Amino acid sequence: MAEALSDAGARDEADEVAELALRTPNGYQRGYENTARIFIKNQGITGVEQLLEIWRSTPLLAQDGRWLRGVIAALPTCQEHWERLLPVARELGRALVALPTADSTSAMSGLRFLFDIEGADAVPLAVDSALRRSWSWLSWKDIREIASECVAFGRLEDAITLWRQILSQPHTGPGIDLDVLEDIEAAGATAEAAACVMALLDDKTLHAPRRLRLRQLLAWLEEGERYAPMTPSVST
């Protein structure tokens, strides 16, 4: 209805209907996205800022991530108003990541959005979120993706923190472990990978099956001169 009113030139009425729809919980993501686009089209940058006010003043919209995902998808990316757009985009993106009811799809959608608009500034939030949440919240693939983003932004230490977390888990499959090691090697951090595995092997509480797996991974790193152990040179 809002779109029909807008097309007919009844912008005020269209905005009223759009705002009502945007304040209504339990809607569909696509519906929120389309309505937000109409709202922004009619009101410009002021409409974007009003979306943030709607979010802040309507707690029922936080029941799941559909509203945030829809509205974020509708946000413009024009550089002309970026100084006013960025604070709104940042707050909505971080709200999606922090949403207690968000599933992994919503959370990763929020993190990808923040990486796009904040770049390396989003790395601490991404790493902290991945480490604080239960591991059922994100898949191993999700954690690997976050680690890869860290590498892309030159934050290798943060990436290693996430890789170490994955390798320390007792119930990952062999395919996941090898994928992680390949990620580390692709990042040019083979020595760090070996050091990480050896540090984990020093854990006296490590279960025997996991210890065996880690030894196999270390051997895989050393195979075919993929990793040359770094030993101090001895002068004669």
Helix/strand layout:
Layout: H1 2-7, H2 11-22, H3 29-43, H4 45-57, H5 66-74, H6 82-98, H7 104-118, H8 123-132, H9 140-152, H10 156-168, H11 174-186, H12 190-201, H13 208-222
Description:
The chain has 236 residues and is an all-alpha fold. The protein is built from 13 helices and no strands. Helix 2 (11-22) runs antiparallel to helix 3, helix 3 crosses helix 4 and helix 4 runs parallel beside helix 6. The termini are far apart. The model is unreliable at 224-236 (pLDDT under 50).
Provide the structure class.
Answer: mainly alpha
The backbone outline, from C-alpha atoms, is elongated
Strand content: under 5%
Please give the number of β-strands.
0
Count of discrete alpha- or pi-helical segments spanning 4 or more residues: 13
Give helix and strand order, one letter per element, not per position.
HHHHHHHHHHHHH
Main sheet characteristics: none
Cα distance, first to last residue? 86 Å
**Rounded mean pLDDT score:** 84
Given as residue ranges, the uncertain stretches (5+ residues, pLDDT < 50) are: 224-236
Determine the fraction of residues in helical runs and give it as a percent range.
Answer: 55-70%
- Taking all Cα atoms into account, the compactness measure Rg is 23 Å
Structural features:
236 residues; mainly alpha; 69% helix
Briefly say what this structure is.
The protein is mostly helical and 236 residues long. It has helices at 2-7, 11-22, 29-43, 45-57, 66-74, 82-98, 104-118, 123-132, 140-152, 156-168, 174-186, 190-201, 208-222.
